[in-house]
Amino acid sequence: MPAQRPRSQKPRARRVFVRSVQIGLGLALAGFIALVVAVYLQASTLPSFSELKSSPNGQMIRVRAADGTVLVSLGPSYGEWLPYDQIPQVMKDAMVSVEDRRFRYHPGVDPIGIARSAMVRVQRGRWVQGGSTITQQLARNLFLSNTRTFGRKAREWLLALAMERKFSKDQILELYLNKVYFGGGSFGIDAAARRFFGHPGNQLSLGEAAVIAGLVKAPSRYSPTADAEAALARAEIVLSEMREAGVISAADMRAADAANVRLNEDANQNSVRYFTDWALPQLEVLIDETVEPLDVWTTLDPTMQKAADAAIRAHTPEAAQGALVALDRDGAVRAMIGGKDYVTSIYNRAAQATRQPGSAFKLFVYLAALEAGYKPEDQVVDEPVTIDGWSPRNNSGRFSGSISLRTAFTYSINTVAAKIGQDVGTGTIADMARRFGISTPINLEPSMVLGTSDVRLIDMTRAYAAVAAKGVAVAPYGITKVTTTGGRVLYRHQTDSSRVLVAPWVAAGMTDLMQSAVSAGTGRAAQIGRPVAGKTGTTSSNKDGWFMGFSSGLTTGVWMGRDDARPVRGLQGGTAPARAFADFMRTAVARRPVEQFETEAKLPEWQLEPDAEAYLGEGDPPLVDEDGNPVQPEDGPAIEDPAAGSPERLDENFIDRALGRAPRDAPVDPAQPRDRPRPEAVLRPAERAPAVQRRPVPAEPVTPR
């Protein structure tokens, strides 16, 4: 017969169980008391409601166009604070329905939500639902990071419970809807409404509220600026949640069809970003403010920017890229396009890319020539030429013989540019390019006159703008002033127009040549029905196409080509780039008065042709012998040297003036071009001006120049 268990064991087990329960309850009570104390202590350290309303979470920068409109908002944007009673009810219902349906009933932490999240975790093997309440999300946004650790989660629970003790449900929801991040740099429903719909947050419709409420789950993924279709699809889910929660009817849901919600067109976030990416880094050297929200007032003209974007998109060849920069008289950047699409490529080809400019570089060749004494009507010879083993050829494949300097520039004759480079020196041309703002390395090979050195579009545009400014340096800038949101001015741009690069008559001569290039030469496609001066540029194998020009005070540079520098079929400066220039400029200068170019600037005395008075009387033509020397008329007075005042004596100064050269003993003026003879190096020997033979003076023989 089996042994029986002593009767005393059952009471003992019962006593152990009861004791364990008592201990457990005691520990639970102690834990609860500790939690209550911790919650109240935490609540006592929380900022007040007014402090939480006013505390920013980072510096906001609003970038404004020249007309004051906001181009983009960078950094956190908070919009206007909306009190609870001004927040649309549909917005409150949408947020509670999708994020925390039991918001009004839990103490800040939802046990049911936590249990559901744990079950899903067990079923799927990973955390899918966080179970966070609106209060927890607010606590995390205000005081914690987004790191996923149990320690951070415990602190989040404690803060949520404390906030529920200190603030009412309405205050918590008000803070949440004005503080939470909705994507696109927008914090709070007012900033989001203005960003995505173009109106304040207190005017939200049901569909718009559903879009905004749907963003909280994944702002980067569902933001309309990132994926408009995903944002609208998510809004449909929010509407379904609201219908299931009973806050809207089926009819309301159908009427609010998210697909019909009109999102704010965000064209500014495309091409405008090329400009803001270029301009905003300059703030680091302009101001020291790094905390207070800022308004950055820029030079960008929205109408011109839109026209520039359209022109580049319309005319840039397929598989190629295009860039455009437009500068006003003082260097203000009115439009900047760095590529066909900022979303697909943020590389700014207007300010960063370096490419060969081709014949657009001839600006510096001809500026050096004009400064050295050439004139637009001087005769030059288009003929085969070889310089240090390099033999340039013309695009036409033929040679035209004797032509004017104007004709050579108008039709971009390469052989003449090469001869000018040989005459004035490639070092002089490189110095001219440096003087006008070219910041990239320039080679000194003979071929440099045809634009074989890489340059930036913005630098080239700056150089052409200086010619339009009659030889005064132009420095591109994009920021006119920086203010705080309260209106305190931190920076204001000051234009410096004191640096003169070339004499006005040199700039006038260059403008004259460029006007001919557009009216009758390679730049004819750039005509817009008003005076335009410009120059085309095409590199070998049609890898790059340029057009640079100005009209009515606006200078615009256009470049097109492939990023990999492969040839583009049919691309030339006078085709797509010139057409894009024309399309843009027709809009850009439409409201500006038509301006005629000042191409008749007064030349210095050493550039003037000798007149009749230098030889004989007023109105009488000079008489020269077969060698080109002035002779005395048979029945006239002896020829007098106006400088010396003695008959029949022609000193060196008189000869120089007769040939249009600077007198040898004239005082040197550093502001004037250097003294040099007329450009005979590009003429045929038979066509050169005959040497003037000085009449013999026994006491002081002089070798003719």
Helices and strands, with pairings:
Blueprint: H1 9-45, H2 49-54, E1 61-64, E2 70-74, H3 89-99, H4 111-124, H5 134-143, H6 150-166, H7 169-179, H8 189-196, H9 206-215, H10 219-222, H11 228-245, H12 250-255, H13 272-279, H14 283-286, E3 294-298, H15 302-315, E4 321-327, E5 333-337, H16 362-372, E6 379-382, E7 401-404, H17 405-410, H18 414-424, H19 426-435, H20 457-468, E8 479-484, E9 489-492, H21 504-520, E10 533-538, E11 544-551, E12 554-561, H22 576-588, H23 652-658
Parallel strand pairs: 1-3
Antiparallel strand pairs: 1-2, 3-8, 4-5, 4-12, 6-7, 8-9, 10-11, 11-12
Helix pairs in contact: 1-6, 3-9, 3-11, 5-6, 5-7, 9-11, 15-22, 16-18, 16-19, 16-21
Region (Disordered): 614-705
GO cellular component, one term: outer membrane-bounded periplasmic space
Pathway: Cell wall biogenesis; peptidoglycan biosynthesis
Structural write-up:
- This protein has 23 helices and 12 strands.
- The chain has 705 residues and is α+β, with helices and mostly antiparallel strands.
- Among the domains are: 50-57 and 75-260, Biosynthetic peptidoglycan transglycosylase-like (Penicillin binding protein transpeptidase fold); 306-589, DD-peptidase/beta-lactamase superfamily (Beta-lactamase, 3-Layer(aba) Sandwich).
- The strands form 3 sheets. It has a 5-stranded mixed β-sheet with strand order 2-1-3-8-9, with helices on one face. It has a 5-stranded antiparallel β-sheet with strand order 5-4-12-11-10, sandwiched between helices. The protein has a two-stranded antiparallel ribbon with strand order 6-7.
- The N and C termini lie far apart (148 Å).
